[in-house]
Amino acid sequence: MTINTFPENFLWGGAIAANQTEGAWNIDGRGLSNIDLIPHGPDRQSIKLGYKKAKMSDNEYYPSHTGIDFYHRYKEDIALLAEMGLKVFRTSISWSRIYPNGDETIPNQAGIDYYTDLFKTCKAHNMELLVTLAHFDIPMGIVEQYNGWKHRATIDLYVKFAETCFECFGDYVNYWIPFNEINVVLHSPFSGGGLYFDDTENREEILYQAAHYMLVASASAVESCHRITPKAKIGCMIAGGSFYPYSCNPEDVWQSMNDERTNTFFVDVQAKGKYPYYMDAFFKSKGIHVDISEKDKDILKQTVDFVAFSYYASRTSIADISRVEKNEGNIIVSAKNPYLKMSDWGWVIDPLGLRITMNQIYERFEKPLFVVENGLGAKDVIEADGTIQDDYRIDYMEQHFQAMYDGIQDGVPLLGYISWGVIDLVSASTGEMSKRYGMIFVDKDDTGDGTLARKKKKSFDWYKQVIQQNGVEI
């Protein structure tokens, strides 16, 4: 038995997001966020996709309102993560906890105090911090007043929020991400950008206009971060995963190339400082007009220090998807890959795809990479003896670690690996608690019932050992 040793100072970590864990949705001055209006149940998808306007109802259950009560339990949770040995902890800042309505001149001090103490607690346990500024999170005040990222005014509001975070938390945070999975705004507009649509609007044009404003805001945040906290690194992040052609039919290969471009042009802008050539032809072919000023182009020249991505699955592209069975488990619909097994929620399991994705991203952008989300959503069972034997999660992670190690041997510089949902949390896609990713179990069900007690799974000690030996036994 050998150990595949990772590079010295490799950052093994775990991730959560404010909107899926904190709860305390209306406590200590926090304002209403878009996530607070997305219910669990049949209306969830239509609201996330911007087809149905969100409205609070007494007849709906809103998982984000309570999350896993991380807001009140963060000290015990961070202690557990420290026991696991995490080198880096990824979390996000709730925008509406800092600026409740989004357009205030003075931040909410209670929010500043909360995150200051959270970050101090992490540093006391010798954990690095990777903080996402906007993780599917925008104040509803901005949505109602400015239509979210439809409006250019949102850029300045976001930059003010970002600069407040750099100024207040810069002593604790060494790694920043402006937007979580920025490309998801094209697929889940309300959760990704606070966007609604009506029947008279050109949905596709609005999506790319909103994406542009987010890209300008991201570049502005890069400039602010480098100026305010020059020792920190700031990256960009997409929902990653390569697009394979369904067959060697040239039409399928062409489709996969275009799908890949749609998914990664965001990184072209953030890592290279300009739109790639093919987007001009794309906009022209679709009749899309995007307001891109000369000042915007100048701002976009501020490029990121690293490229982060989530990796859960690869995708399969086909020119005519009506000919085959769809894989609809993920928000990005693709053809079902007949060569791969699937998770309980219909996500393909493709460890080699992580190595492929690493190589493709680095070859294209030549920036250090960071895997900031990966994991298996599964149904965990508490055994009669009280244990949770999640060997399937260990097997999943071990296979992906091997692929990641192989990618590093290929010459890809990788800063670290961060396991998604290291503590069980509310699923962003389905709103369920039963879709569990964590190595720490949280006693809560899909209706919100439970004690919220924390319990270690078998994978807890396994990941602890991986971190201790900086590698995986193969």
From TrEMBL:
EC number(s) reported in the record: 3.2.1.86
Keyword Nuclease: no
PROSITE patterns reported for this sequence: GLYCOSYL_HYDROL_F1_1 (PS00572), GLYCOSYL_HYDROL_F1_2 (PS00653)
Transmembrane annotation, as ranges: none
Catalytic center residues: E373 (nucleophile)
Main enzyme class: hydrolase
Keyword vocabulary terms for this entry: Glycosidase, Hydrolase
GO molecular function terms listed in the Swiss-Prot or TrEMBL record: 6-phospho-beta-glucosidase activity
Family, as annotated: Belongs to the glycosyl hydrolase 1 family.
Name of this chain's protein: 6-phospho-beta-glucosidase
Lineage, uppermost ranks: Bacteria, Bacillati, Bacillota, Bacilli, Bacillales
Gene: ascB
